[in-house]
Histidine triad (HIT) protein (Pseudofrankia inefficax), 131 residues
Amino acid sequence: MPTIFTRIINRELPGRFVFEDEHTVAFLTIAPIRPGHTLVVPRLEIDHWIDLPDEAQRDLWSVAAKVGRAIQESFQPRRVAAIIAGLEVPHTHVHLIPIESEKQLDFSLADPNASSDQLDEVAERIRTALA
């Protein structure tokens, strides 16, 4: 059965995409820790990031850096953190989170009630910075 991320990538479920190419996509999480919290996901459905083929690894991190720079430009955080946890969805993904301190790297701070309007505005800011 495909993961929820594969279903988003295949447009079976909605996603607020900010970037996509042949190998990798980036879209907003529906429960952001901070505005700008974005997921970078390979199209290849592999559970553990260490099992990704080398080419997929390179593309994943290249896209993460590109999107991370756009988040930095859009939100001006002190840092854009990159986290791979991978415990809830068995599909490799990198969380990019704009932060001011390490205390903000707490998934219990995620906002499951982020409004569609907020998420749309955040996605547009990142897409504009990527253009």
